[in-house]
């Protein structure tokens, strides 16, 4: 079975407080984009086998796909195993939920492969046991998110804008970011105001408060990765100095994401993954 694991971006993120259990209560506006990993998963006689085109992806019990597969084997007394190949396309340490997206995709795939007939609510609850972002990745719908990422309030209204997603080679560790965070110096974002702006399709209400730069056509907002820009007009040419590619956001939204990394066409991704699986 082939399944795509879609990345997400945080259009806005506010760290509200630190909890007694060491985690942080958050408020976020999260949206899925079409940037994705491609996963091939098949039933085997026993065990869990993971392969990847990426050398930095662990293929043992440290991998989130392994964790959800093991949980499902034990929870539903599955007598067979799974072999997984993941073609990584989502950058790591970028706030794009690449690992969580892969875990969610494996839950959905195993649900079909083993005819478990789990609902989205049941799959989300299962994923929550492994990772806070997995429930969002199960649903793949724009949402106002609370708690550690498990409380989802879906936003049905799309809005017209474009994303410029910038991801250099250097990444940001989520654990390190929260460990070194000084809440006394945090500038809190009004994520509820952005939610209302999206629902009302009010571009200025969405981004004016979150802007870091003065260009009225381009707003940089605090969100995923090392740089996330929201633009009214898609830039198709940057003085010939840099190449970009774009793909639309999911859920029939008019948003698009653009990255400095030239994205490989989906057809080529699938073909390379298929060849690798056969080897």
Overall description:
It is a single chain. The chain is α+β, with helices and mostly antiparallel strands. Helices cover about 25% and strands about 30% of the residues. The strands form two sheets. Strands 1, 2, 3, 4, 5 and 6 form a six-stranded mixed sheet that branches. α1 runs parallel beside α2. It is globular. The two termini are about 15 Å apart.
Summarize the structure.
With 279 residues, the chain is of the alpha+beta class.
Please describe the topology of this protein:
Elements: E1 2-18, E2 24-44, E3 48-52, H1 64-75, E4 81-87, H2 98-113, H3 120-128, H4 134-139, E5 143-147, E6 151-154, E7 162-166, H5 174-179, H6 191-199, H7 203-207, E8 218-220, E9 227-231, E10 245-248, E11 256-259, H8 266-278
Parallel strand pairs: 3-4, 7-11
Antiparallel strand pairs: 1-2, 2-4, 2-5, 5-6, 7-9, 8-9, 10-11
Helix pairs in contact: 1-2, 2-3
Please identify the structural class as seen in this structure.
alpha+beta
Helix count, per DSSP?
8
Oligomer: single chain
Overall geometric form: globular
Distance N to C terminus: 17 Å
Rounded radius of gyration (Å): 19 Å
The main β sheet shows up as: 6 strands, mixed
**Number of DSSP strand runs:** 11
Average pLDDT level:
76
Please bin the fraction of helical residues: 25-40%
Order of helices and strands: EEEHEHHHEEEHHHEEEEH
Low-confidence stretches: 212-227, 229-279
| Strand coverage percent | 25-35%
